[in-house]
Amino acid sequence: MATFTYSTRIYYEDTDAAGVVYYANYLKFMERARTEAMHQLGFSQLKLANEGFVFVVSSCQIKYLAPAKLDDRITVNTTIKSMSATSIIFMQNISTTKDIVSGEIKVVCVDAESFKPRKIPTHIKEALQCQ
Amino acid sequence: MATFTYSTRIYYEDTDAAGVVYYANYLKFMERARTEAMHQLGFSQLKLANEGFVFVVSSCQIKYLAPAKLDDRITVNTTIKSMSATSIIFMQNISTTKDIVSGEIKVVCVDAESFKPRKIPTHIKEALQCQ
Amino acid sequence: MATFTYSTRIYYEDTDAAGVVYYANYLKFMERARTEAMHQLGFSQLKLANEGFVFVVSSCQIKYLAPAKLDDRITVNTTIKSMSATSIIFMQNISTTKDIVSGEIKVVCVDAESFKPRKIPTHIKEALQCQ
Amino acid sequence: MATFTYSTRIYYEDTDAAGVVYYANYLKFMERARTEAMHQLGFSQLKLANEGFVFVVSSCQIKYLAPAKLDDRITVNTTIKSMSATSIIFMQNISTTKDIVSGEIKVVCVDAESFKPRKIPTHIKEALQCQ
Lengths: 131, 131, 131, 131
Hints:
Four copies of one chain form a homotetramer.
Chain A: E1 4-9, H1 25-40, H2 45-50, E2 53-64, E3 73-83, E4 87-95, E5 99-111, H3 122-130
Antiparallel strand pairs in A: 1-3, 2-5, 3-4, 4-5
């Protein structure tokens, strides 16, 4: 997958009383970006769930470099670092005119009922690799 | 149901850049209070969902009287105003040393799959009325 | 103001274990829509806050008509119902292919420090009325 | 600081359409736990902010081991791994009857206006070390 770009404005809901984006909320922006990247490749979270599997985050390493503020427009750049049979590691960077947050997020394909790891379906893997 | 009391502290996650609790978040506190009230009567949301029904909010009227702030300790008082075969109207009041928010929330019992209204199970209704 | 339209996809963050959008989160979509409407007229929340005033919600009446679900694309239509010296009443409707939520939200202009009501600045009122 | 324990129930607001706690929300529980630990030592976030400094998260490493679900009661155990002149590294573990999430969170003391690092005030450092 080439770099996928998602962009949004910062609203009151995203901020906290320190006047900046609350630290957990950057993970929401990152998930929206991964979801939009999947959509661009033709895969929806709902369709995947209905087919019996869900992608869940198994680990993340986040570096907070500078705070985003109310009304800022942020861009989330997403690339794939590596893939295994059951997992994908995404590199995600959030920026305004400067770098705000960088993260490495490992996502595992699991069964929608048991939450046990299962192989990423071939057509998804191929779609991700062709990018 | 007599007045049920739920209390919590205001954390950074609850506030926004205006320095006060974000207006949608009071609805979270109200739902926690309703959930704890149900637990006190012996009913868990999960058990209800597993039995095939869910309580969903069908309408709410909220008045914001004064803002709660970081580190405030709020109390949510919850009473039942009325019940019908399929719905319950709750009166909920959030306060610190003064009144913060008051709300009237109508909750409907629906089928967990179709989300169509269904009768509130008798044992729940009785438990609520005995209070 | 003519009808202002804001649109977004429903992400995992917006949903809950009942499989639908959590009831408080519709208020976030409504606030984003009001914020974007203000931006379209040339006003940013941040600039307003820096000028010493904030628009806060003083009451809302929300009707939940049908649930929105993961991956749904929702549209929030926003119009102004009426204005007074210090407040604005918005009518907001959220829909997919059907109506999901309708709300009447009263917003009051307050001093950013004291949170006491103050007159809506003339240039904002005029911009809103010209629409 | 000895191990500090914070506990809460999982509510609908915490979960998503996959039926489990949304991955960003565990960071909220962790922050509540750190806040309560500070309160137990006599420090409030608000008082600190009023004194001109804020503790902000500069990095986190999170491992998601198993999902927490609606109605689960979770416990967040918090210990201090190390401290420098301007930062604290917390180890935080979330569990039900089994381990759910483990995290290492680095928090930096910054000026409330400029968000530039500044020394942790001596009385706070001493209070944390005496534990």
